[in-house]
Amino acid sequence: MTKERFEEIAQSAFDSLPEEFKSRIENVHIVVEDEPSDDVLENVRGGRSSLLGLYQGTPLPHRNTWYGTAPTGPDKITLYRKNIESVCRNEAEVELRILEVLYHEIGHYFGMNEREIRAAMKHFQ
After folding, report:
1. What is the domain partition of the chain in residue ranges?
2. For residue range 39-86, what is the model confidence (pLDDT) as tens digits?
3. pLDDT tens digit string along 99-123?
4. Of 30, 37, 39, 99, which one is least surrounded by beta carbons within 10 A?
5. According to CATH, what is the number of the domain 3-124?
């Protein structure tokens, strides 16, 4: 799959978010990279091929009055294309996995931990 097609699917996944969530997402940059860099791997658990996505930033509930008083770069959600593709057999599976990974990382943006995200994801399966 081309990177462009992967990005189109990711955009469609984001667009499919319920409006009450999508309207609350601010200052987040969603990017597609082939695989995690060495710098990323130093700060997360898992191997180079097992990380499908990553949220980096200040979760929404942890932003207090100081947030944004100085120039603040965007939070970042990264989808790792080669890793996602490696666990899928066809484009339909890639679409579903992108949706799952994107929703998972957005859960972190909203301050959810892994247990809470897994519980919430049951509603989308």
Report:
1. 3-124
2. 888 888 777 778 999 999 988 888 877 776 777 788 999 999 999 999
3. 999 999 999 999 999 899 888 877 6
4. 39
5. 3.30.2010.20
